[in-house]
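Homework help thread (please don't just give me the answer)

Our assignment gives two proteins as sequence + structure token strings and asks us to describe the second one. The first is just a warm-up. Here they are:
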Amino acid sequence: MNLAEALNAALPEMPVRRVSTGFPKMDPAAVVKANVEDGEPVMVVLNRSTDKMFRFNPTQWRIIELFDGVRNYEEIAALHAERYGVAYGADDLREFAAGLEDAELWYRTPLERSVALRQKLESGRHQHTHRKSKWGDIAHMQFSAWDPDQYFNRIYPYTKWLYSGWFTALTVTLFACLLLLSLANWQQIRLDTVQFYTFTQKSASDLAQFWLIFLFLGFFHESAHGLTCKHYGAEVHGMGFHLVYLTPAFFVDVSEAWVYASRWQRLVTIIAGIWVEMIFCAIATIVWWGTPPGSGAHDFAYKIMLLTGAAVVVVNMNPLIKLDGYYAFSEIIGFSDIKEKSTAYLSGLARGQIFRLPVEMEYVTRRRRPGYVAYALLSGIYSYGLLFTVVRFSYNVCSRYSPQWGFVPAGIIALVMFRGRLRTLMQFAQTVYLDKKDRVRAWWTGTRVAIAALATLVILFAPVLHETVTARFVMEPGERAVVRTTIPGRVVSVMAREGETVTAGSPLIEMENREVRSMRAGAGSEFALTGMKRVEAQLDHSDQGEVIAEHARAGVERTIAEEESERLSPRAPISGVVMNAGLKNLAGSFLDAGTIVAEIGATGQMRARIFVLEYALPRVREESLWICWRMGGSVSCDRE
């Protein structure tokens, strides 16, 4: 602290007095509506001047509505006692009004707002410690916003047909088509979705295209929220871009829906964004299904499908972070702020019951306690899982370019993301230490310290300790076989699918070749004709040598024709699993000789290909190597 700061702390400036000498009153721009939350009546007040929302119980609201800027506190106390039969003192009302003044409920003139802003700046100009970043907390970083109310006012008259009954029926029909086509092609869509969101394999142009489509769809998503809010009579005064646990998302401020709309209307407002994305997905799915593969429309529609499909819907409708699913869940259960309330309850429970610290907790009914604990745990696991996924993703990207130093940028990102939580953890550890230090010092006697030191030495130098190297691996079949066509033909049926187990000798596809078919028919007819001639020669006792030779030659030709016909049905040379994708798409196509039909992998004996990073190779010693692998939920170990 320098001299100027010391003087500022010792001799602070006198606060500027409030300019207005009148009495409090409600802001004329405030919007008020009666509502029911958690089974209790509440008055919801939205102050548009400050963008703050307040909830008051009926008792509080009876007092607030008496403040009109003209009555003094004594008059308000007398009027309240006359109307409701409950008497309050003028000092109590003055204290109540002062609390609402700090909460910025009352109306302020432009001059009063200027004075209040000056006081706020002067009181905080030297407070730099623990200052938030200009982008906010990592859980929610907001970048920009604009007032879209006039935009929605202009487009609503031309789009209100979107809320008609016939259009709702049409969209439900589209969703049914989407469901049927998705189920019919689910295996392909599932694999392509994973590949589509694997950013480490994308080029710069792929990333640019991804974000352009994402921004396009995101604009319509948020516009659907705002337009639905406008449909129910509310105004929309905020729209922009933000990150929720580093997950990119757009936002639109539909706070007035909680004032003007009913619970069902608020729920419709919340799911409107997902509803529009599903419309895009349904139309794109129909275009993808009806256009030839490889065409521009086919590929673009498929990207729209993957960006608006099941994966995005599941993430957006997840109630564990504050996206659409969280607010829909809050409306369904009937009360808001469940994330904050459940987290505070679990934190207080841990502090009081586990660490035995003095703590003040808000009362929670017995019926809600299990739900609070479950939600707080699931939400915390999911939120931290998202953060760890971001760190892991950054490490994978950086290690791709520099395996030795990839951990440095990933570590910096992790430090930036978790610094607030680490600071909170250190403060909590300090609190626990100060509360328990006397008890711990009394427990650590000389004998116990010696035992703990001896146990530590034994653990550190025990020969049972081993060094572990973690690496990814790929399981491959011990034997593979590639099935090719030996003659050309058109595929008339496919009898195997990707991932299906086949036995040796089972047909994979059935082809048709007119030349082979006519050759087989001709060879069969020739063999039958020469057979009849042979019988006639035997009955006539004529020379049979030439007839027998012709019959034998016809038999050879028939055998060759049958073998050619058998080659029209390529068969699996070994028993195993069909490994290649797209086998079912061969139906109706013409295949030349030598075309790969399928790849069969024998799964009776598998081979693991382990990818160990270069820096970890010296730690792998063959003479004492144990390999443990985890597949699904089971872990197995074996000595190499």
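The one we have to describe:
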Amino acid sequence: MQTPHCPQRDSNPQPSCCEAPLAGGDCGVLVSLVDDLADDLEEVDFEDAGNGDDDNEGWETEDEMEAEAEQDDSELTFSKHTGSVFCVSLDPATNSLAVSGGEDDKAYVWRVSDGEVLLECTGHKDSVTCAMFSHDSSLVASGDMSGLIKVWKVETKEEIWSFEVGDLEWLEWHPCAPVLLAGTNDGSVWMWKIPAGDCKTFQSPACQATSGKVLPDGKRAVVGYEDGTVRMWDLKQGNAIHVIKGQDGHQGALTCLACNKDGSLMLSGSVDGCAKLINTSTEAGRERRRKYNLAASNPCVSV
């Protein structure tokens, strides 16, 4: 089978695109038509097309669509940290300050109005996983994964107290006094007067104290453990006044605790997929308890 013959291009001008015959195999004519079309396009001023009207009005470029997809609607973004942020808290007195701790082994106290850093909490050995203000917002505590806890005076920006425990699980301020509580992975619960440092410990079986909450009356604290047990501690006497475990307790580690305004109800969440509502008031040494199955296959991580 022969290849169709393609004659040499003639030096004479070719017919216009309207007049040109497209005879089968006439490659010279087709090439000429393409050249003429290219010449015609070069004479078109696309910027002036439409007599100045914006023909693309209402259309978005790819860059504009990407910018819209990435739009940030937050009031303020604080980006001083150089790694992941693991904890945040607002000051309870005015809600004008925030503290955040992160993977960069630091905590920052900053203004929520403009993000200005007021205090940089340094000297930690590991990622800061706990950071929160005292009840009157005059103090801020920061704790890292290694168990190093520091307390800072916000007004003077000075460190006033530090202590080192085992691997830290949580920190919690007393609701009406400069008293700090902490839970560790060996099951210990610590309580200190700040800045004096007077200390009391609440011992339990060797099991991580995974979460803790001081009740609003300031006299009791509820602590959740890795084995699913919930203990209510008398902070003054130092003993467990109630223990919820077994069928009444969770079947997995406690992850979170919350209570209502007067402390009469406590809500606990666990990796067993359940949240339990506990009535903390007692009658004849018994508690009323209710259980809510959220999702048997999914852990409850926040309440």
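TA reply:
I won't write it for you, but here's a hint about the kind of observation we're looking for: The longest helix spans residues 27-42.
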